Amino acid sequence: MRQRLASLAIGIAALAAPLDAEAQPAAKTFRIGVLANALDTADGPLFEAFQDQLRGLGYVEDRNMVIEWRSSEGDYDRLPELAGDLVRTKVDVILAASLQPARAAAEATKTVPIVFVVSADPLSHGLVANLAHPGGNVTGLATYVPAELSERVIQLLREVVPKVSRLAVLMNPANPIHRQLVSQALPPAAQQARIALIPLEVRAPGDLPGVFDAAVRERADAVYVLADVVTFIHRVRIANLALKSRLPAIYAYRSAVEAGGLMSYGPSLRDLFSRAGIYVDKILKGARPGDLPVEQPTKFELVVNVKTAKALGLAIPATLLRQADVVNP
Questions:
Q1: Dihedral angle computed from the Cα positions of residues 271, 301, 150 and 217, in that order, rounded to the nearest 10 degrees
Q2: Confidence of residue 41 (pLDDT cuts 50, 70, 90)
Q3: What pTM was estimated for this model as a whole?
Q4: pLDDT at position 38
């Protein structure tokens, strides 16, 4: 009797095992959309920082995560179509890699969560209603601290070029952030330092040689290159033109220094994209975007290229080198 009961129990267990296995839900595969405008490729350093963060949180591509990558390659007009395509692909969340992609994504959907990384004021651009409690389906990280950045940039230039009195500013008039910087944030800092600003417009790559010719004609002592899709994609060319024109240049982000530029100062984009991975993880685990506060940058980095300084005949002060987060030999 006992033997028959034992056999019956084993048989029931054998029948139940596959049923239990079938009852276990398969691990969900999350579709993460990325809408970019100026990142070089899907495996560029900024996107890599985002992916590294996700990997550290347990996401493995093609196992429980699929990346849907869309880039306009610098053509703003393509962004609405690309954003709509991501929505139709039914992604679980969208990472918007700069202001224009964030706008396009926000206009394309009011339901799919959006995490942005923007060099702008998300309030004035209508991305969120409140920094602490964004509401809606959009949140992220913003690098907008124009007054502090302007003062520090001019201070740093003064340390490298003590006699700077005329500063050329490469700006795109179609970029609202540039217009605000040139009209509001930079003038007070320049006036305090007794530096004349020379705004030079760069709308397209073809403008770059003429802009540097104009900087030389206007007797600029240095150049401040504002962050933009054109200046990002063509950073190597800009660094070469600055060197050819014998003009010390300071940039908004380290990628320009890695491309041969003299120095940069600004928020760490790698850090911000890494933080964006944490936001995406929270949303995929059930957090509502509207409840996640917009983060401001906490890490700023100074990067100096000693080789370019030597080519320009400049001696970088030891005090400045000690302040630098990265020194390219």
A1: -110
A2: low
A3: 0.79
A4: 65
**pLDDT category, 42, cuts 50, 70, 90?**
low
Banded model confidence at residue 318, pLDDT cuts 50, 70, 90 = very high
146-267+301-328 matches 30-143+269-298 in CATH topology: yes
Where do the H-state alpha helices sit in the chain?
A: 2-23, 45-56, 79-88, 99-108, 146-160, 176-180, 186-192, 208-217, 229-233, 235-244, 254-258, 269-284, 306-311, 318-323
- Specify which residues 138 forms β-bridges with: 114
Q: Hey, where are the domains in the chain? A: 30-143+269-298, 146-267+301-328
186 vs 195: CA distance, rounded Å: 10
- pLDDT, mean of residues 100-114: 96
Gap between the terminal Cα atoms of the chain:
85
At the fourth CATH level, the homologous superfamily of domain 146-267+301-328 is Response regulator (3.40.50.2300)
Whether the Cβ atoms of residue 74 and residue 38 lie closer than 8 Å to each other: yes
Q: Assess contact for 132 and 161: CB atoms under 8 A.
A: no
CB contact at 8 A, 233 and 204 = no
Q: Between 3.40.309.10, 3.40.50.2300, 3.40.50.720, 1.10.150.130, what CATH number should domain 30-143+269-298 receive?
A: 3.40.50.2300
pLDDT tens, 140-191?
Answer: 999 877 777 889 999 999 999 999 999 999 999 988 888 888 998 899 999 9
Report the alpha-carbon distance of residue 251 to residue 301 in Å, rounded: 11
**Rounded CA separation 179/184 (Å):** 8
> ∠ at Cα 151 (258, 172), nearest 5°?
60
